[in-house]
Design goal:
This protein is of the alpha/beta class. The protein contains eleven helices and nine strands. It starts with a helix and ends in a 5-residue tail after the last helix.
Length: 327
């Protein structure tokens, strides 16, 4: 036999052996998950934020279910981009998980250089709970509903606190301002501090997700004006939806998503997805979500991926139409 074909055959056999060795190594890594070392869950926002609350619930339950160690690391900054960049550079072995909000799908359109491609650089693990956004004011504010608030904004200089630039709490309010033709000055805060700004009187109103606002509303420290979903939320059934005031096509949510770096083996993604779904379906988890106005449902990585592509497209259009930008 000529030597050239022999060399080609030998090279092919070596390549195949390496591939099988790699597959075996990944299979072993997946089989060991999450026992080989602690799993680092990197949260794109600070302690007390919506994403942080979910991350800690899921981390605790994952530990109980799997017997592994799950460590939550808060890495706030740049609308979650700092955490995203950190996880993007991590090994695709299932031991570094990103927990982000809907801002993950917004930032690539909002920032000149967010530092990542939301579709190519990560694998979607699972869609976590979601919550509609809610507009609130201080109880001393004369406006009792959204119509009165818009009228007030036409005669007075108002400000609103959001959970940060590029979050749906910011973009939903910008959409409302455009639809109502009013100017309300945006004051971005970290998610956990946005509600407190209104309670303390630093801003006229707030646009936030429900979890940090609900306790303050129930304590009488805030007045709820409207939720940004198409329908009322069961947790606050007395609060009207924004569509009840004639604003169409509003069904905006803040959601939490879990991601791993691109290149993570599909079999490992499926395993982690299954464990996350188990953690979120536990009665204690669901009770916690419901108490804060959140809702969740079982989903696969593929289903979350399809949802994510729609969200990236939707919010890119909103960023363009509203002229929103990083200040």
């Amino acid at each position: 036999m000529p030597q050239a074909p022999i060399r080609s055959l030998f090279a092919a056999l070596v390549a195949t052996a390496c591939l099988l060795s790699g597959v075996s190594a990944w299979a072993q890594a997946g089989a060991d998950w999450p026992k080989a070392k602690p799993v680092n869950i990197v949260v794109g926002f600070g302690p007390g934020a919506f994403t942080d609350v979910i991350a800690r619930v899921v981390a605790q339950k994952l530990g109980e279910i799997t017997g592994g160690s799950f460590v939550v690391e808060n890495k706030p900054g740049a609308g979650g981009n700092i955490a995203t960049g950190q996880v993007k550079r991590a090994a695709p072995d299932g031991y570094t998980i990103l927990v982000h909000s809907v801002a993950y799908s917004v930032n690539p359109s909002l920032y000149p250089n967010a530092g990542y491609d939301p579709i190519k650089d990560f694998v979607p693990l699972a869609l976590g709970p979601r919550t509609p956004n809610i507009l609130t004011v201080h109880p001393n504010t004369p406006a009792k509903d959204l119509k009165e608030l818009v009228e007030l904004a036409r005669t007075q200089k108002l400000t609103y606190a959001s959970s940060g630039i590029g979050t749906t709490t910011h973009l939903s309010m910008e959409r409302l301002k455009a639809a109502a033709k009013v100017d309300i000055v945006h004051v971005p805060y970290q998610p956990a501090q946005a509600v407190g700004a209104v309670v303390a009187g630093h801003t006229s109103m707030s646009s936030t997700s429900m979890p940090p606002a609900v306790p303050q509303i129930k304590a009488g420290k805030l007045r709820a004006i409207a939720v940004t979903s198409a329908k009322r939320n069961p947790l606050l059934p007395e609060v009207p939806s924004i569509t009840e005031f004639g604003y169409k096509d509003f069904d905006d949510y803040t959601w939490v998503g879990l991601f791993v770096p691109a290149g993570t083996p599909p079999a490992l993604v499926e395993r982690i997805n299954a464990e996350i779904n188990k953690a979120m379906e536990l009665p204690e988890s669901k009770e916690k979500f419901v108490s804060l106005g959140m809702e969740s449902s079982r989903n696969t990585s593929a289903q979350f991926g399809a949802f994510l592509r729609d969200e990236v497209s939707k919010w890119a259009e909103v960023v363009k139409s509203t002229g929103a930008k990083v200040e």
